[in-house]
Amino acid sequence: MVFNTMRQMSRLIFFIVPTMLFIVACGESKPTKENNNEELKQLEEQAFSTEELDVELGLQLLRAYRAALKEQLDPEMLFKAGEVAYNLPGNEDAAMEFFTRLTIKYPKHERAPYAVFYRGLIYENRWNDKERSADIWEEFLVRYPSHELANNAAELLTMARDTVDDLEKVLKWKDQETNENVQ
Fold first, then answer.
1. What phi-psi label fits residue 90: left (phi over 0), alpha (psi between -120 and 50 degrees) or beta?
2. Are 170 and 147 in contact (CB under 8 A)?
3. Domain boundaries of the chain, sorted by first residue
4. pLDDT (0 to 100) of residue 10
5. How far apart are CA 109 and CA 45, in angstroms?
6. pLDDT tens digit string along 116-154?
7. Which of 86, 110, 117, 127 could staple 95 via S-S, CB 3.0–4.6 A?
8. Which residues contact residue 40 at a Cβ distance below 8 angstroms, ignoring those fewer than 6 apart?
C-alpha cells in the first residue's frame, strides 16, 4: 500500500510541476530590459521629434529613464534624463539629481563638464541662488579649465560674484539706513 501511495504521489508531482511551470511561463511576464529599452527609444523619438518638449511625454520619458537607470547606471542616460528634467517646468530637483549623479559617478566622462554647467544654470536661473551658482562655476573652472565652456563659466562666475557683492552692499546700506533712523 505504501508503494501504491508513493506511486500516486509521484504521478501527482509529475503532473503538477509541469502544469505549474506552464502556467507561470504563459502568465503575465515582467517587462524585460529589452522591452524597457525599446519603450525608451520610442519615447525619445517622440519627445525629440518636435522643437518643444510636450510635458506629458517628457514626464513619461523621465519615468522611463528612472526605471532604466535602476537596472543599469549609464552616464549618457543620466545626462539625457537631466536634460529632459531641466526642460520640464518644476523638475529642477530631478535635473539636479541626475546631473549630480553623473558628475560624482563619472567625473571623467565627456558629459560631466556639461552636467556641472547645467548644475550652475539651475542654481543661477531656476533657484536664483547666485552664491551657490558661483561655487559651481568655480568648481567647473577647477575641474575643467580648458573645456570649451570654461570662458562662459568664468563670465558667469564674475557676474554671480558681482551680484552677490551688490546684494551685500544693498543689505549693508539698508542696515545703515535702519540704524540711522533708529538713532
1. left
2. no
3. 34-178
4. 43
5. 24
6. 999 999 999 999 999 999 999 999 999 999 999 999 999
7. 86
8. 61, 64, 65, 68
**Which pTM value belongs to this model?**
0.70
Ordered DSSP codes for 107-147: TTSTTHHHHHHHHHHIIIIIS--HHHHHHHHHHHHHH-TTS
Instruction: Give the model's confidence band at 36: pLDDT under 50 very low, under 70 low, under 90 confident, else very high.
Output: low
Cell of 168: 551685500
For the beta carbon of residue 97, count every other beta carbon within 10 angstroms.
Answer: 16
Q: Are 113 and 144 in contact (CB under 8 A)?
A: yes
- Report the largest interatomic distance among the alpha carbons of the chain, rounded to a whole angstrom: 110
Indicate the CATH number for domain 34-178: 1.25.40.10
Q: Are 89 and 55 in contact (CB under 8 A)?
A: yes
